[in-house]
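<tokenise_the_fold>
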Amino acid sequence: MPNAYNNATAGFRAGPSWLERLRRARKSALLQDGKRKVHYLFEDGLEMAEEYDLKTSQLLARKWREKTALGSSSKWQVEVGEPTSHTAGALESKLIKESSSNPIFVRRDTQTSFQWRIRNLPYPKEVYSVSVEKEQRCYVVRTTNKKQ
């Protein structure tokens, strides 16, 4: 979970409930590109942005950011949905980055289920198998490809 999310949900036992924090937050909303976009600004400076599909009311994205120690806004941390791609600035282009062809894991919440989707898989989906490791509390994605 992102740090901002952990900060938002930590300490609720001692402070106001999550519902109360949502009620107290400053909210703004707009309709754009077939989506309802809602922005929350909490009393402690934490921000949350959500996007919903207008036709299905399905949550498409949820992201968080918080103020840094010097008061500027940190980068958005995506909790639900696909990370937004951004063009690298002059400084970022010189840093080491992971390959854009690596698989991307995306959480998607619907009214009836929580879904995990995997993008950028290099082989056809028939090559993969998914299993659950209960003791380690994780999903395992394997290929049936044989190394030669």
